[in-house]
């Protein structure tokens, strides 16, 4: 019997594509495969559909992941306002949050930064980002040896324009000034998608090109 080692939740801010449902059983499985470990319990909240944990349930989680989305993190849609409210509560509680793409931008918004359309235009594909090594402690986010750069899948048209005052910008690229930022030791945010693989990226590019969401 495997001992339970932690409880985590995915705040899914995008609907499952038909491809991801057929191939992986949904984005939830993609995220758990990427970040989960044996013995952990993971729960799914489709925040895009208004599904959120109750306030009294928040304490029972060790951490949260906020997914990407086709929606704007600076929007005033009801579910996005609710997501910001929940994230503010989690921040006050010092709960660990991993924000990815849209999630990265939501945490920026919650923390008082500024989000908007990417200054240098949309970014799609595999890109290299530079790690600010002086801001990373060995044994922390990247292990004992901090890499000088990382390759990561990118798929966004918005970005963090001004990081929160309390944030450490720990990675950047020629396309985006704030690729990764952290706040204290409980908030970590990526503009890119460490959970995606090439197969998922290609399907997304094809899908968003068809709806003219991002011109490629």
UniProtKB/TrEMBL annotation:
Residues 26-197 form the Glutamine amidotransferase domain. Pfam families: GATase. It comes from the Eukaryota. Pathway: Secondary metabolite biosynthesis. The keyword Glycoprotein does not apply. GO terms for cellular component: cytosol. InterPro entries: ChyE-like, Class_I_gatase-like, GATASE. One of its GO terms (biological process) is proteolysis. Keywords: Cytoplasm, Hydrolase, Protease. The keyword Hydrolase applies. It is found in: Cytoplasm, Cytosol. CDD domains: GATase1_1. GO terms for molecular function: peptidase activity. Belongs to the peptidase C26 family. This is Glutamine amidotransferase domain-containing protein. It comes from Eutrema salsugineum (Saltwater cress).
């Amino acid at each position: 019997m495997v001992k339970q080692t932690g409880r985590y939740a995915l705040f899914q801010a995008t609907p499952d594509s038909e491809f991801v449902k057929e191939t992986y059983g949904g984005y939830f499985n993609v995220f758990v495969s990427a970040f989960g470990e044996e013995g952990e319990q993971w729960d799914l909240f489709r925040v895009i559909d208004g599904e959120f944990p109750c306030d009294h349930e928040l304490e029972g989680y060790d951490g949260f992941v906020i997914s990407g989305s086709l929606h704007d993190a600076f929007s005033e849609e009801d579910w996005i306002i609710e997501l910001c409210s929940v994230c503010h509560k989690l921040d006050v509680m010092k709960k660990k949050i991993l924000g990815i793409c849209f999630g990265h931008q939501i945490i920026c918004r919650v923390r008082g930064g500024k989000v908007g359309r990417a200054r240098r235009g949309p970014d799609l594909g595999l890109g290299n980002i530079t790690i600010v090594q002086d801001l990373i402690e060995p044994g922390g986010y990247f292990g004992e040896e901090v890499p000088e750069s990382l390759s990561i899948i990118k798929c966004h048209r918005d970005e963090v324009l001004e990081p929160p005052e309390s944030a450490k910008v720990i990675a950047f690229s020629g396309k985006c000034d704030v690729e990764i930022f952290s706040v204290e030791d409980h908030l970590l945010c990526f503009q890119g998608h460490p959970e995606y693989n090439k197969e998922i990226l290609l399907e997304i590019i094809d899908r968003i090109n068809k709806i003219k969401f991002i011109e490629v």
